[in-house]
Amino acid sequence: MPILDAHSFEFISRSPEQTRRIGIRLGSSLQAGDVICLSGELGAGKTTLVQGIAQGWGSLDAVTSPTFVLVNNYRKTGGFEMNHFDAYRVQNALEAEDLDLTGMIADGPFLVEWAERVKSVLPEDHLWVNMKYLDEEQRSLLFIPHGKRFEQMIEKLRMNILKGLE
Fold it and tell me: What is the DSSP letter of 28?
């Protein structure tokens, strides 16, 4: 477990709906080039969080785990795209690099599940989210920003939650 610093933020979600709401808040501030790295065991809530992120970003597309297809693409009006990559079945970072991650990141926000498997080919600036299954309903979400933009994003998320918006 990483040591919390002034920029990290830990949140205990009490339900899948609350996990989606956190995702909606996060997704509403995403831009092209933003990389969100999700880490956590099966059942930790990664896809549930992505459902909220895509909704907050403005996509009406159905969100499912891309485990068997590797990458799902979500759209919103204006021709904008978001890519959702699942590295679970990727053997190593070089295999992921062959998928043109750089191009996918440039297209729009880029979300990667099982990010620890491809960490070496991801940009230095990103938001890392460690997720843990606590019980049937509850999940721990630890947001660790890397880079000024993501520090500001997490500070905004923290302030919204403290104001009682969750």
Answer: T
- The answer to whether residue 27 is domain-embedded is yes
Domain count, the chain: 1
CA 147, CA 152: separation in Å to the nearest integer?
A: 9
pLDDT given at position 49: 96
Using only C-alpha atoms, the chain has a radius of gyration, in whole angstroms, of 15
Q: H or E element: which one contains 76?
A: strand 71-76
pTM: 0.88
Q: Render pLDDT for 43-101 as a digit per residue (tens, 0 to 9).
A: 899 999 999 999 999 998 888 776 667 888 899 988 899 999 988 888 777 677 777 77
Supply the range of the domain harboring residue 28.
9-162
Length of the chain: 166
Q: Report whether 59 contacts 74 (CB < 8 A).
A: yes
User: Residue 96: inside a domain, yes or no?
Assistant: yes
What is d(CA 72, CA 89) in angstroms, rounded to the nearest whole number? 14
Q: What CATH number should be reported for the domain holding residue 138?
A: 3.40.50.300
Tokens 């302030």: give the residue.
Answer: 159
Which of residues 61 and 130 earns the better pLDDT score? Answer: 130
Domain contains 132: yes
In this structure, is residue 85 part of a structural domain?
A: yes
